[in-house]
Amino acid sequence: MEIHLFSLLAKHEVEKYESMDFEAGGYKWKLVLYPNGNKSKSVEDHMSLYLAITADTSSLPLGWEVCAVFRFFLLDQNKGKYLIVEDALEKEKCFHEMKLEWGFDQFFELKQFNDTCNGYLVDDTCVFGAEVFVTKETSSGKGQCFSLVTDAHSSKHVWKIENFSKLDGSSYSKVFEAGGQKWRMNLWPRSHILYLDLTDYTPASNVFAEFTMRILDQVNAKHISKKAKHSFTASSWFWGWHDFVSSGDFYNPASGCLVNDACLMEAEVTVYGIPGPM
Protein backbone atom coordinates (compact mmCIF):
# COMPACT_ATOMS: atom_id res chain seq x y z
CA MET A 1 0.00 0.00 0.00
CA GLU A 2 1.79 3.09 -1.26
CA ILE A 3 0.63 6.49 -0.01
CA HIS A 4 1.70 9.71 -1.72
CA LEU A 5 1.65 13.07 0.09
CA PHE A 6 1.34 11.35 3.43
CA SER A 7 1.48 14.64 5.35
CA LEU A 8 -1.91 15.65 3.93
CA LEU A 9 -3.57 12.93 5.99
CA ALA A 10 -2.80 14.99 9.08
CA LYS A 11 -3.61 18.28 7.34
CA HIS A 12 -7.06 17.04 6.38
CA GLU A 13 -7.54 15.43 9.81
CA VAL A 14 -7.87 11.90 8.45
CA GLU A 15 -8.00 9.88 11.66
CA LYS A 16 -8.10 6.49 9.93
CA TYR A 17 -7.31 5.21 6.43
CA GLU A 18 -8.38 1.78 5.18
CA SER A 19 -6.84 0.02 2.18
CA MET A 20 -8.76 -1.79 -0.50
CA ASP A 21 -9.66 -5.41 0.24
CA PHE A 22 -7.16 -8.11 -0.70
CA GLU A 23 -7.50 -11.88 -0.55
CA ALA A 24 -5.60 -14.44 1.48
CA GLY A 25 -6.59 -18.02 2.16
CA GLY A 26 -10.04 -17.55 0.64
CA TYR A 27 -10.88 -14.58 2.89
CA LYS A 28 -10.80 -10.84 2.31
CA TRP A 29 -8.65 -8.52 4.40
CA LYS A 30 -7.64 -4.88 4.59
CA LEU A 31 -5.03 -2.74 6.30
CA VAL A 32 -6.29 -0.13 8.78
CA LEU A 33 -3.85 2.72 9.41
CA TYR A 34 -4.12 5.46 12.03
CA PRO A 35 -1.43 7.91 10.81
CA ASN A 36 -1.33 9.78 14.12
CA GLY A 37 -2.14 6.90 16.42
CA ASN A 38 -5.38 5.24 17.49
CA LYS A 39 -6.84 7.84 19.85
CA SER A 40 -9.42 5.37 21.15
CA LYS A 41 -6.45 3.42 22.56
CA SER A 42 -4.83 6.62 23.90
CA VAL A 43 -1.87 6.22 21.52
CA GLU A 44 0.53 9.15 21.31
CA ASP A 45 3.68 9.76 19.28
CA HIS A 46 3.16 6.53 17.28
CA MET A 47 1.15 5.43 14.27
CA SER A 48 -1.16 2.43 14.65
CA LEU A 49 -1.58 -0.35 12.08
CA TYR A 50 -4.01 -3.28 12.04
CA LEU A 51 -5.06 -6.19 9.85
CA ALA A 52 -8.85 -6.56 9.60
CA ILE A 53 -10.92 -9.37 8.14
CA THR A 54 -13.66 -8.01 5.91
CA ALA A 55 -15.59 -11.21 5.24
CA ASP A 56 -19.36 -10.93 5.04
CA THR A 57 -20.10 -12.48 8.41
CA SER A 58 -23.66 -13.33 7.34
CA SER A 59 -22.20 -15.85 4.88
CA LEU A 60 -20.10 -17.57 7.58
CA PRO A 61 -21.43 -20.23 9.96
CA LEU A 62 -22.41 -19.38 13.53
CA GLY A 63 -19.36 -19.20 15.77
CA TRP A 64 -16.91 -18.79 12.85
CA GLU A 65 -13.22 -18.26 13.56
CA VAL A 66 -10.34 -17.68 11.17
CA CYS A 67 -6.79 -18.07 12.49
CA ALA A 68 -3.93 -16.42 10.65
CA VAL A 69 -0.25 -15.63 10.98
CA PHE A 70 0.68 -12.21 9.62
CA ARG A 71 3.43 -9.65 9.62
CA PHE A 72 3.64 -6.05 8.52
CA PHE A 73 6.26 -4.33 6.37
CA LEU A 74 7.49 -0.75 6.20
CA LEU A 75 9.79 0.09 3.29
CA ASP A 76 13.15 1.75 3.95
CA GLN A 77 13.39 3.58 0.62
CA ASN A 78 17.03 4.56 1.20
CA LYS A 79 18.18 0.96 1.48
CA GLY A 80 15.47 -0.70 -0.60
CA LYS A 81 14.68 -3.06 2.28
CA TYR A 82 11.59 -3.71 4.35
CA LEU A 83 11.38 -3.38 8.10
CA ILE A 84 9.42 -6.40 9.34
CA VAL A 85 7.06 -6.01 12.30
CA GLU A 86 5.40 -9.06 13.83
CA ASP A 87 4.36 -10.46 17.19
CA ALA A 88 7.24 -12.73 18.15
CA LEU A 89 5.46 -14.17 21.20
CA GLU A 90 2.06 -15.01 19.76
CA LYS A 91 2.27 -15.25 15.99
CA GLU A 92 -1.13 -16.83 15.35
CA LYS A 93 -4.14 -14.59 15.85
CA CYS A 94 -7.76 -15.72 15.72
CA PHE A 95 -10.29 -13.46 14.02
CA HIS A 96 -13.97 -13.85 14.88
CA GLU A 97 -17.18 -11.86 15.09
CA MET A 98 -16.12 -10.08 18.28
CA LYS A 99 -12.51 -9.53 17.16
CA LEU A 100 -12.32 -8.49 13.51
CA GLU A 101 -8.85 -6.93 13.62
CA TRP A 102 -5.43 -7.47 15.14
CA GLY A 103 -2.29 -5.39 14.96
CA PHE A 104 -0.14 -2.88 16.77
CA ASP A 105 -1.37 0.14 18.70
CA GLN A 106 2.21 1.46 18.67
CA PHE A 107 3.29 0.28 15.25
CA PHE A 108 6.07 2.83 14.71
CA GLU A 109 7.31 5.99 16.39
CA LEU A 110 6.30 9.11 14.45
CA LYS A 111 9.56 10.94 15.15
CA GLN A 112 11.59 8.16 13.54
CA PHE A 113 9.08 7.77 10.71
CA ASN A 114 9.14 11.47 9.80
CA ASP A 115 12.95 11.63 9.83
CA THR A 116 13.81 11.34 6.12
CA CYS A 117 17.27 10.00 7.02
CA ASN A 118 15.59 6.76 8.06
CA GLY A 119 14.09 6.28 4.60
CA TYR A 120 10.53 5.47 5.66
CA LEU A 121 9.04 8.77 4.45
CA VAL A 122 10.78 10.07 1.33
CA ASP A 123 9.33 12.85 -0.83
CA ASP A 124 6.25 12.57 1.40
CA THR A 125 5.70 9.01 0.14
CA CYS A 126 5.67 5.80 2.18
CA VAL A 127 4.98 2.12 1.51
CA PHE A 128 3.32 -0.36 3.88
CA GLY A 129 2.78 -4.06 3.30
CA ALA A 130 1.35 -7.19 4.89
CA GLU A 131 1.88 -10.91 4.48
CA VAL A 132 -0.98 -13.13 5.64
CA PHE A 133 -1.11 -16.90 6.09
CA VAL A 134 -4.47 -18.57 6.71
CA THR A 135 -4.14 -22.22 7.87
CA LYS A 136 -1.58 -23.47 5.33
CA GLU A 137 -2.52 -21.28 2.40
CA THR A 138 -0.54 -18.26 1.25
CA SER A 139 -1.98 -15.27 -0.55
CA SER A 140 -0.69 -13.99 -3.86
CA GLY A 141 0.70 -10.49 -3.63
CA LYS A 142 -1.33 -7.52 -4.76
CA GLY A 143 -0.71 -3.81 -4.45
CA GLN A 144 -2.54 -0.54 -4.22
CA CYS A 145 -1.41 3.07 -4.52
CA PHE A 146 -3.37 5.84 -2.82
CA SER A 147 -2.50 9.39 -3.89
CA LEU A 148 -3.54 12.49 -1.98
CA VAL A 149 -4.31 15.60 -4.01
CA THR A 150 -2.28 18.75 -3.31
CA ASP A 151 -4.38 21.26 -5.24
CA ALA A 152 -7.82 19.90 -4.41
CA HIS A 153 -10.65 22.18 -5.50
CA SER A 154 -14.25 22.07 -4.36
CA SER A 155 -17.09 21.79 -6.87
CA LYS A 156 -20.69 22.78 -6.25
CA HIS A 157 -23.83 21.45 -7.86
CA VAL A 158 -27.34 22.81 -7.28
CA TRP A 159 -30.37 20.57 -7.78
CA LYS A 160 -33.77 22.24 -8.16
CA ILE A 161 -36.66 19.94 -7.23
CA GLU A 162 -40.03 21.14 -8.47
CA ASN A 163 -43.45 19.73 -7.52
CA PHE A 164 -41.94 18.50 -4.28
CA SER A 165 -45.31 17.52 -2.80
CA LYS A 166 -45.83 15.02 -5.63
CA LEU A 167 -42.61 13.09 -4.92
CA ASP A 168 -43.09 9.62 -3.52
CA GLY A 169 -40.00 7.40 -3.45
CA SER A 170 -36.35 8.26 -3.76
CA SER A 171 -35.30 10.94 -6.22
CA TYR A 172 -31.92 11.52 -7.85
CA SER A 173 -30.19 14.61 -9.16
CA LYS A 174 -28.41 14.70 -12.48
CA VAL A 175 -24.91 13.25 -12.41
CA PHE A 176 -22.24 15.91 -11.90
CA GLU A 177 -18.44 15.85 -11.76
CA ALA A 178 -16.11 16.80 -8.91
CA GLY A 179 -12.46 15.90 -8.54
CA GLY A 180 -12.52 13.81 -11.69
CA GLN A 181 -15.28 11.59 -10.25
CA LYS A 182 -19.00 11.38 -11.02
CA TRP A 183 -21.57 12.00 -8.29
CA ARG A 184 -25.25 12.51 -7.70
CA MET A 185 -27.52 13.49 -4.83
CA ASN A 186 -30.08 11.00 -3.55
CA LEU A 187 -33.13 12.28 -1.65
CA TRP A 188 -35.92 10.42 0.14
CA PRO A 189 -38.42 13.28 0.55
CA ARG A 190 -40.78 11.68 3.07
CA SER A 191 -38.07 10.86 5.61
CA HIS A 192 -35.64 13.65 4.62
CA ILE A 193 -32.82 11.20 3.94
CA LEU A 194 -30.08 12.83 1.88
CA TYR A 195 -27.07 10.98 0.47
CA LEU A 196 -24.16 11.67 -1.84
CA ASP A 197 -23.52 8.79 -4.29
CA LEU A 198 -20.32 7.97 -6.18
CA THR A 199 -21.89 6.79 -9.43
CA ASP A 200 -18.90 5.47 -11.39
CA TYR A 201 -17.38 3.29 -8.68
CA THR A 202 -15.53 0.07 -9.56
CA PRO A 203 -14.16 -2.80 -7.42
CA ALA A 204 -10.91 -0.79 -7.18
CA SER A 205 -12.56 2.48 -6.14
CA ASN A 206 -11.30 4.22 -3.02
CA VAL A 207 -12.09 7.92 -3.25
CA PHE A 208 -11.60 10.00 -0.11
CA ALA A 209 -13.73 13.15 -0.21
CA GLU A 210 -15.04 15.89 2.01
CA PHE A 211 -18.52 17.10 1.14
CA THR A 212 -21.16 19.50 2.36
CA MET A 213 -24.85 19.03 1.61
CA ARG A 214 -27.20 22.01 1.86
CA ILE A 215 -30.88 22.77 1.62
CA LEU A 216 -30.83 26.34 0.38
CA ASP A 217 -32.92 28.98 2.13
CA GLN A 218 -34.62 30.74 -0.78
CA VAL A 219 -35.83 33.61 1.42
CA ASN A 220 -33.12 34.63 3.89
CA ALA A 221 -30.09 32.67 2.62
CA LYS A 222 -29.76 30.94 6.02
CA HIS A 223 -29.03 27.55 4.54
CA ILE A 224 -29.29 24.23 6.38
CA SER A 225 -26.01 22.33 5.88
CA LYS A 226 -24.08 19.31 7.11
CA LYS A 227 -20.49 18.27 6.38
CA ALA A 228 -18.83 14.85 6.29
CA LYS A 229 -15.67 13.03 5.18
CA HIS A 230 -15.86 9.55 3.72
CA SER A 231 -13.87 6.99 1.72
CA PHE A 232 -16.16 5.97 -1.15
CA THR A 233 -15.56 2.35 -2.21
CA ALA A 234 -17.42 -0.40 -4.04
CA SER A 235 -18.94 -1.54 -0.74
CA SER A 236 -19.55 1.97 0.62
CA TRP A 237 -20.33 4.08 -2.44
CA PHE A 238 -22.84 6.42 -0.76
CA TRP A 239 -22.83 8.44 2.44
CA GLY A 240 -25.10 10.95 4.07
CA TRP A 241 -27.77 11.49 6.69
CA HIS A 242 -31.01 9.77 7.65
CA ASP A 243 -32.36 12.86 9.39
CA PHE A 244 -30.91 15.75 7.45
CA VAL A 245 -33.69 18.15 8.51
CA SER A 246 -36.82 17.87 10.61
CA SER A 247 -40.22 18.11 8.95
CA GLY A 248 -41.05 21.09 11.12
CA ASP A 249 -38.07 23.06 9.91
CA PHE A 250 -38.40 21.99 6.28
CA TYR A 251 -42.08 22.91 5.92
CA ASN A 252 -41.86 26.08 8.00
CA PRO A 253 -42.42 28.95 5.50
CA ALA A 254 -39.92 31.10 7.41
CA SER A 255 -37.14 28.61 6.73
CA GLY A 256 -37.28 29.21 2.97
CA CYS A 257 -36.67 25.52 2.25
CA LEU A 258 -39.83 25.10 0.22
CA VAL A 259 -41.08 27.96 -1.95
CA ASN A 260 -43.85 27.48 -4.53
CA ASP A 261 -43.51 23.71 -3.97
CA ALA A 262 -39.86 23.80 -5.05
CA CYS A 263 -36.65 23.34 -3.09
CA LEU A 264 -32.95 23.71 -3.88
CA MET A 265 -30.40 21.09 -2.82
CA GLU A 266 -26.68 21.78 -3.09
CA ALA A 267 -23.67 19.49 -2.86
CA GLU A 268 -20.13 20.84 -2.48
CA VAL A 269 -17.53 18.12 -2.99
CA THR A 270 -13.73 18.15 -2.58
CA VAL A 271 -11.76 15.03 -3.50
CA TYR A 272 -8.55 14.65 -1.46
CA GLY A 273 -7.45 11.12 -2.38
CA ILE A 274 -7.80 8.69 -5.29
CA PRO A 275 -6.44 5.20 -6.06
CA GLY A 276 -3.79 4.76 -8.75
CA PRO A 277 -1.36 2.21 -10.18
CA MET A 278 1.74 1.21 -8.23
Task: Return residue spans where pLDDT drops below 50 for at least 5 consecutive residues.
Answer: 136-140
Taken in chain order, the helices and strands follow as: EHEEEEEEEEHEEEEEEEEEEEHE
CA distance, first residue to last residue: 8 Å
Largest sheet: 11 strands, mixed
Number of helices: 3
Q: What would the average pLDDT be, to the nearest integer? A: 89
β-strand percent reads over 45%
Radius of gyration: 22 Å
Beta strands, count: 21
Structural class: mainly beta
**Form type:** elongated
Helical fraction: under 10%
Protein name: Ubiquitin carboxyl-terminal hydrolase 12
Keywords: Hydrolase
Characterization of this structure:
The structure is a single chain. The chain is mostly beta strands. It has helices spanning 7-11, 110-114, 247-251; strands at 2-4, 17-18, 22-24, 27-34, 46-53, 65-76, 81-85, 92-96, 101-109, 125-134, 137-138, 145-148, 155-161, 171-172, 176-178, 181-188, 193-198, 206-215, 224-233, 238-241, 263-276. The strands form 3 sheets. Strands 1, 6, 7, 8, 10, 11, 12, 13, 18, 19 and 21 form an 11-stranded mixed β-sheet that branches. A hairpin with a 4-residue loop joins strand 16 (181-188) and strand 17 (193-198). The longest helix has 5 residues, at 7-11. The chain is elongated, with a radius of gyration of 22 Å. It starts with a strand and ends with a strand. Keywords: Hydrolase.
